[in-house]
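Hi everyone,

Forwarding the result from last night's run.
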Amino acid sequence: MIQNKICKNCKKKFANPLNGHPKEWENREFCSTLCANIYNGKYCVRTEAVRKKQSEFMKEKAPWKGKHLPQYLKDKLSIAAKNRKIGTKSGFQKGSKHWNWQGGISTEKDKRINDTHWKYLRKQIYKRDGWTCQICGKHCRGVEIQCHHILPAALGGTDNKSNLETLCNKHHRTADRQFLYIL
């Protein structure tokens, strides 16, 4: 039997939802959580006076809001937007004009590591080796994995796929230490 109740806030009739628990229905006094919040003072209904006051405050804070721009400003903005290159840094932040420029101190190794070709090649090696260390067989992801040169670049090793293998961090450190004694 579906029983109707009357909401304490809006005085509307509401029925028990079919999926509602019987104990919840016994304690239920409101048709919705919105009515319950309004009744209990947890929801602030904006009156016309409050809206007017907020609108005046916004006009003082941002006087251009709600007004149309003059045509000469629209033209200036459209020209600026056309000249702006999307997805690139603007000219004043590049190279020696950047605020943190330190005289081009990046090493050749840093430049090679950050190169997109090297990042692509590393991903190919990870996929080829199944994201597993070639020494211990541990399956790795993200920062736990390294792309290792079998013959280091310092000793004439190249970036060929045959000279690269996937190692976990632990075995990459031990493999690099072996060649420290040679150098």
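The longest helix spans residues 48-61.

Cheers,
N.
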